[in-house]
Amino acid sequence: MLDLGISKMALIGAVALIVIGPEKLPRVARTVGTLLGKAQRYVADVKAEVNQAMDLDELRKMKETVESAGRDVEKGIRETTANFEKDWNEATAGLSHPDDPLPDGGWTPPPEYRRPDKNWRLKRGATPQWYKARHGVRRQVQSGAARVARFRPKKTNR
């Protein structure tokens, strides 16, 4: 690239002042500055596009790598599952199902589970009223207004 130091810039400025003249020099300098800015922006855009294309290629390669690894894992899982099912079937081929009765007829399946009946209303009704009153068990439904009135602080005369 060009190696422009302060001395070279001063020499270029002096030659430009002599050749162009002091009246047109500011306009020419402004035009040169805008052209250099546009050129820099163009170079930066080209660099960005090149970098983006390179990143896109890298991402494509990475995507292909991940997809192939996923296919390999899926293939391995399928093979493992098939081998397991084959081994399982071979191992359980001579066994009978536990619900099947034995050939001698001595085995019967257990009865189906039935939850015991619990009548919680009967239990609550068997509790004495004095016990409910002492321990704060509600004996009847209260409205919201009655509940507020029940727990409202008492008025005291001072």
Question: How does this model look, in words?
Answer:
It comes from Ottowia pentelensis. It is found in: Cell membrane; Membrane. With 158 residues, the chain is mainly α. It has a domain at 6-83. Helices cover 65% and strands 0% of the residues. The chain has five helices and no strands. The longest helix is centred in the middle third of the chain and has 67 residues, at 25-91.
Biggest sheet: strands, sense, closure?
none
Supply the helix-strand structural class: mainly alpha
| Weakly predicted, low-confidence segments | none
Computed Rg = 47 Å
> Which sequence of SSEs, written as H and E, runs from N to C?
HHHHH
Question: Roughly what percent helix?
Answer: 55-70%
What gap, in angstroms, lies between the N and C termini? Answer: 99 Å
Strand fraction: under 5%
**What is the average per-residue confidence, as pLDDT, rounded to a whole number?**
82
Give the number of helices.
5
Q: What is the β-strand count?
A: 0
Shape: flat
